[in-house]
Design goal:
Helix content: 25-40%
CATH topology: Metallo-beta-lactamase, Chain A
Mean pLDDT: 97
Order of helices and strands: EEEHEHHEHEEEEEHEHHHEHEE
Low-confidence stretches: none
Number of domains: 1
CATH superfamily: Ribonuclease Z/Hydroxyacylglutathione hydrolase-like
Distance between the termini: 5 Å
Bound molecules: zinc ion
CATH class: Alpha Beta
Strand content: 25-35%
Strand order of the largest sheet: 6-5-4-3-2-1-14
CATH architecture: 4-Layer Sandwich
Radius of gyration: 17 Å
Length: 261
């Protein structure tokens, strides 16, 4: 499989993944042109995308979904509550490209996609696990809490994009209005750097994982701080980098971590 976050952060999210035969995007939260450019950058072409999966209706995950579907005739997959919440903002979508995920499972060619519930302030937000043969990649961002359900899906994954959204002190003392701070810190908000580190302790086991930290806040975090905070939490738990797991950062503005596994 190939797994590559094209963009990751509060300003827009999109992830490319492929198996031998299937090519998919998870979210397309930037203008279509940006997604096309990012795909080109990693040697892919938007016309070859078989499906776009949507995690939830917030615009940092959906901005380019409608445009790409119309331009390249790509089916869009989401659960029914997410469809209801996002359909107005997507614009006109061909009936046959409106695909509703039922029973949390979809198969695209030789790729199996399972969705799972995440805790976030959207209609019915989902994480996704993508598998092919015995390989598995998971997306877990926009998490108010790191639930047992999410943990169960992640513990046997090879590659994980995990949220490390904010530094709690930067958020608390930063410029956001009080209500927004409370929303982000709530159990339907976003995972802090500290909580991200604790989440990783939870899923560290005999299965070696490549973990990519992503969905960083532009205002309340920066990559070096996120990385170091997580490393410190792992060190305290005696988890060894590159032996127990490997850690990297997703980039906000360009493709990162092109992982073949
Ligand atoms: Zn969101
Ligand atoms: Zn988001």
């Amino acid at each position: 499989m190939i797994f590559c976050p094209l963009y990751s952060g509060s300003s827009g999210n999109s992830i490319f993944a492929s198996s031998d035969k299937a090519k998919v995007l998870i979210d397309a939260g930037l203008p279509g042109k940006h997604i096309e450019k990012a795909l080109e950058h990693i040697g892919q072409n938007a016309k070859d995308i078989d499906a776009i999966f949507v995690t939830h209706e917030h615009t940092d995950h959906t901005k380019g979904v409608g445009v790409l579907s119309r331009k390249y005739d790509i089916p869009i997959y989401a659960n029914s509550a997410t469809w209801e919440a996002m359909s107005k903002t997507l614009g006109k979508i061909k009936t046959e490209n409106i695909r509703i995920i039922e029973n949390n499972y979809i198969n695209i060619k030789d790729m199996d996609i399972t969705s799972y519930e995440i805790s976030h302030d959207a209609a019915a937000p989902s994480g996704y696990s993508l598998s092919h043969k015995n390989k598995k990649a998971c997306i877990a961002t926009d998490l108010g809490v790191f639930s047992e359900e999410v943990s169960n899906h992640l513990e046997d994954a090879d590659v994980i994009l995990l949220e490390s959204n904010h530094d709690i002190q930067m958020l608390k003392f930063g410029p956001y209005p009080y209500n927004l701070k409370r929303r982000i810190l709530s159990n339907v908000g976003h995972l802090s750097n500290d909580d991200c580190g604790k989440a990783i302790i939870n899923i560290t086991n005999s299965k070696f994982k490549k973990i990519i930290l992503g969905h960083l806040s532009k205002t309340n975090n920066y990559p070096e701080l996120a990385y170091q905070t997580v490393v410190n939490v792992l060190k305290d738990a005696k988890i060894k980098l590159d032996k127990d797991l490997c850690l990297s950062m997703a980039k906000r503005d360009m493709p990162s971590n092109y992982i073949e596994f």
